[in-house]
């Protein structure tokens, strides 16, 4: 059996090749293996939040809390600013203005298992001289720098 390969170029109109399209519809490529992501359970998340060292993992903990509570995408977390989060004492009100669907969202994070304590601790480490309002800053050895965290860095932590 001969395996075929379809190369698609941007400037080729594939509607001019009906036999080729029919061939690929009859003989689909089935040997593609997708990577399966590991899904953390609630107990694994709780164990990570309670036992992981804050000096190394505080930013990841805050990202995990906000990401799970609001079902946030990576770019929504990266673009989150300090002004988008309102601390009302017993909970946080988080506003996500820029979403993929162009519909702003609001969600609430309550204090379960000292989640608000982790968020407040991370926010208190923010240097006073930072010129931008992005929430997530580069965090290492218990200190934040003024450099904001990018989409790829946040994606590595949360995947």
TrEMBL record:
Superkingdom in the source lineage: Eukaryota
Record InterPro entries: DNA_brk_join_enz, Integrase-like_cat_sf, Integrase_catalytic
Key words of the record: DNA recombination
Annotated Tyr recombinase domain residues: 35-159
Identification of the protein by name: Tyr recombinase domain-containing protein
